[in-house]
Write a structure and sequence with these properties.
This protein is mainly α. It has helices at 2-50, 52-61, 69-94, 99-103, 111-123, 125-136, 142-159, 164-198, 201-214, 222-239, 243-264, 278-297.
Length: 307
């Protein structure tokens, strides 16, 4: 009896040790992907577009060329794909695990879950905007505001480009590539690995949502982005299917992009100039919560991650 109990304890310890090793390896692969992207892919891209001298200046002095708008799209899109999709896939390969155990199942989900997810994303918008107003009142350092302004400028450069080709390029990047890559990394790899270690879905969802918001480096919008990340995290955990948060993330990003274009055409007024009433925010929170509860009760596939 004693030897059997000892054997079980050793086995549980080995599993926990493996999970910790996988989480460390996941971060190591992510940092490695970033290094390869910035010190291999980017210099090669600059050399092709601007010549060898420009690539050498980038590599030795970190002098970034004045990219065109389309080059910014290529740089942003390729960096998202390379640094967010490669690490979880490489981790599955290294540890000889099925990809679906790392990122979640990726088969077609029940249409009911997609409809409820879509409804939750739409209903949460007033509460999201209210949380953004609160976030704007929080103190930020001068460096954080400078970074915020630089990121905003880059985004506006892409969004202000005219023509259908530019619009399709923005939708491809913002409403297709970004949701797929970010959900695979955060709600897939990171959230699942933290859950394996802590056995707490709530802690795993909160931590991965915080990381998701922080990685955007836009701290004036940290709170609303974290709330969105938590919603997507619960949908991913309850459904056990990475397609569900990808779809909902794409709906949110696509909706935000559509609002920008409607604003440019003066079809709607600037939402930042409108203060969200408290009662509308409360109604948004309550109805979104009810929809998410319905989502949970209709979940067919429960996540099963062996300890």
């Amino acid at each position: 009896m004693h030897s059997t109990q000892l054997s079980i304890k050793v086995t549980e310890f080995d599993v926990h040790q493996r999970n910790y090793q996988m989480l460390l390896a996941f971060f190591g692969l992510w940092l490695g992907a970033i290094a390869v992207y910035f010190y291999v892919f980017t210099p090669v891209f600059i050399a092709i577009q601007y010549g060898l001298d420009a690539a050498i200046n980038y590599f030795t002095q970190q002098l970034v060329p004045d990219y065109t708008v389309w080059e910014l799209r290529i740089i942003n899109g390729s960096s998202i794909l390379f640094t967010f999709i490669l690490p979880p896939l490489a981790l599955a390969r290294i540890y000889a695990e099925p990809v679906k155990r790392i990122i979640g199942a990726y088969r077609r989900p029940p249409s009911t879950l997609l409809v409820l997810g879509f409804a939750a994303i739409i209903l949460c918008l007033p509460f999201i905007y209210m949380s953004n107003e609160v976030n704007q009142q929080l103190p930020l350092s001068d460096g954080a505001w400078e970074m915020e302004e630089q990121i905003t400028k880059t985004q506006l450069d892409m969004l202000n480009q005219k023509g259908w080709v530019a619009i399709l390029g923005n939708f491809l990047l913002i409403a297709f590539i970004a949701p797929i890559a970010e959900e695979i990394f955060f709600r897939g790899g990171l959230q699942n690995l933290v859950y394996r270690i802590t056995s707490s879905p709530h802690l795993a969802i909160i931590l991965s949502a915080a990381a998701f918001s922080a990685i955007h480096m836009e701290f004036a919008g940290f709170i609303p982005r974290m709330i969105l990340g938590m919603m997507l995290g619960y949908m991913a955990f309850w459904s056990g299917n990475i397609i569900v948060p990808i779809f909902c993330h794409a709906v949110f990003n696509g909706g935000q992009l559509a609002l920008v274009y409607l604003l440019e055409q003066e079809v709607i007024g600037d939402p930042e100039q409108v203060s969200i009433p408290f009662y509308l925010s409360l109604f948004s929170l309550v109805t979104t919560t009810l929809v998410l509860m319905q989502f949970y009760t209709r979940t067919i596939i429960k996540p099963h991650i062996p300890k």
